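Record pair follows.
FIRST:
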Amino acid sequence: MTAPAPRARLAVAVAALVTSSIAAVQWYRTARPGDRSVLVVDNSEELTEALRRRADAPKEDPRPPRPVGPADPFARRNGLVREPVDESVARLFYPGLAVDWRSVHHPLVWFARRPDSRVGCRFTEHPRGEWVIRTNAHGFRDDGPVSAIRPDLRILVAGDSQVEGVCPTDETIPERIEHRLAVRRPSATVELLNGGIGSHSPYNYLGTLERYLELDPDLLLVFVFGGNDFRGMIPIRRYFHREPVPTGGRLRQRDLDAVADELLGLAYSEFGQLYYFLNHPSERDVAVRTLDRIARTIRDLAEDRGIRTLFVYVPAPLSGNPLGYREVRDELLATAGLTGSELAVTDELADAWLERAAAADLSVLDLRPVFARSEERLFWKDGHLDREGNERVASRVANAIEWLLREEEAGSGPGEVLGQVEDRVDACEPPDVRAAAKDEQDR
């Protein structure tokens, strides 16, 4: 390497696809028939009963809190309550531990991928039709090992199934970002580590950072997904706070079955989240405050290790990509018993969190304008980003990384909402980069 990449320490957080009261677990076909990327596991009754028993148990405990991980002092400072989660508890919140052989318990992230695994995937909506998914010795989705020689720029990526990807490895968001950065910095080595896992939510994103601190990343990308991250935090938060599951409301999860016949992932992510917050409006502020506390804890731990943070918000399909769904939007809402104004709850949650993020001096890239402009649908039927969706996210995030690296070199500080400075982010992409990336993908 003749010119090492700047060692600006960054951390990017981008939102991801997780569970609702019915747990949706990312699933790749092995010997099972069919063509599915999502397995719906309904353990809501068991989880509800477990949370009720815990809420009813005596709360006084004279012992000091048990340690969880390296973020503990920052979590306490930010008012973030956590406890260790052993495998028996983790199985309540991540039923994939019981049904997916690739999944294993880990004390920091709670739900992880088995290292050195290999599984075939068939997904006919994708042009390739089928591919093989591999994890390396560290549990990252990657066809190769973590580099033994320290690269010039090492990027750790945390997120859910949107980051893990319903696509071949070379089409995942981390791989597309890596390609773009390599084109821009040909004299430097760039390595992205894909730690995204289906069913993860912001608590797990913090755990991902804790787990892989020893790899000394220069940049942490944590994808926050608006489709169900706000809802996805709630069950495990209730466990930590010893609160029961709220009851009541006019909207019922089973009413989504008709939507699930056509768009399974949409039904059990975006609509499932909407159902919850429409039934329990007071929980909206709880979700926003929880995400704020987790995000500040991630930023504080990262800064303590010399890492700068960037949070990237990825919108939900129906509310975020309205032109792509314009032919079916009204029908889907009617089938789910929802109105257009109720669909806006997702954006209201995002706006509330972004306002808190700005007040906390967090740097944020809001991708809603990118998705809102697209007349093309950017998600598969299962609710995961498709090839073009991955490409557009990777393009904007790579631009933001380049812009932040330049700002770091100039000595600028954090705290800018990058969605409000799109022109400067756009200016970071050389004209030939997108063409080169598109040509490589087509090949």
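SECOND:
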Amino acid sequence: MPTNNPLQNEIEQLNRIQDKISFKAVQEKVDEIEQAANSLPGKLGRVREGGYCFKKSLESTVQSLSTQWRTLYTRVQDEQRKYQTNLQKEANNIRAAHAHGATAGSALSALEDRADAAVRSLEAIYTSVGEQIQSTQHSLDDIAWTLNQLGQASFQLAPGELAFEAVPANWKKTGDKDGVDGVLYLTDQRLIFEQKEEVATRKVLFIATEKQKLQSLQWAIPAARIDRAVGSKKGFMNKDDFLTLDCSAGAPFQTTELHLKGESGETWSRQIQQVKSGAINAERIGSPAAPNQETDTFKWGAQVLLRLKGEASQVQVYGNYGVSGANQDSEKQAWLRQLLIQKVIDKMGELSAKGYSLDQFIQYKEEISATVRAALQDDFARQGFKLVSLEIEGFRQASA
């Protein structure tokens, strides 16, 4: 809390700035990413040994991310040492002035601004690849969970049948107000739901004193009998993910609904379609590569209102992107182009709010491009396209 003593106030402010100069938060995040990056090869090896043979791109993804991270890790450490050396010198000079009873005035605020800018610069180096590393780690952990659940299952897969995904779910069984908790499995042939839950068998004053574990196969539907799988959001503030199934004759029900816990209904809808169409086979290790598709390249540009150095400024951003795919729907292409531009604008607004300067936008345009491209992959895939590349070529401040 500020006091009436300006010198004491500055001493306390300098102590807070010293924490920033230590880059403790940055180092903790870098160490977290380093640990995740080091875990990827082992996690991938274990799921392959466990029999998981889909998502064949994981091998190249893990290798690429490991290579990128080794370079970025060294760069972050080098840049951090440089910033720390220079900022610590300034801090020591101010501390010496304080020791002689003098205040630093604007020099202290300038030091804090430079410390904050240094943190942002370091974050810009590792954030994009770090997010990809942690996303890949999450995917591998999900696969390991799927294999573990399958190993504990009360049923057996058919000969030659292979697991693709699994997720905790609550089946909204007709006549059961609480639904049935369990695991939803997707294989290369079927959609399967297994009950796996503990239910109270005795209660005292509404508190369960005895429980029973229930685990059994509830239903299994050949993918070909699923006419439609639709993802949706429901519940408080539309935060709950649901999957609705409409099935043909021969299925155990005509329609039903599941509350997915941890994955989106849209993702599962798309994965079920992959199984139905046979596209999942292209994901299998050892499957032939998909035929080369022509990549079309398009230019794009936008003008964005940002706050640079505390003032509103118009900034022009421009670049190109490459797409492949058989879908020639011009309306969808136009919609995706606008979506791409909007994602770039949103990202620039987010970074501007963090205090990025125009020079920093230019310096980290590759990292910004990679982040936006990763965020758009699913949107393009849902429309029948593959976003092959996205490049921000440059930024420039628009003339007044």
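COMMENT: The domain at 163-283 is CATH 2.30.29.30 (PH-domain like).
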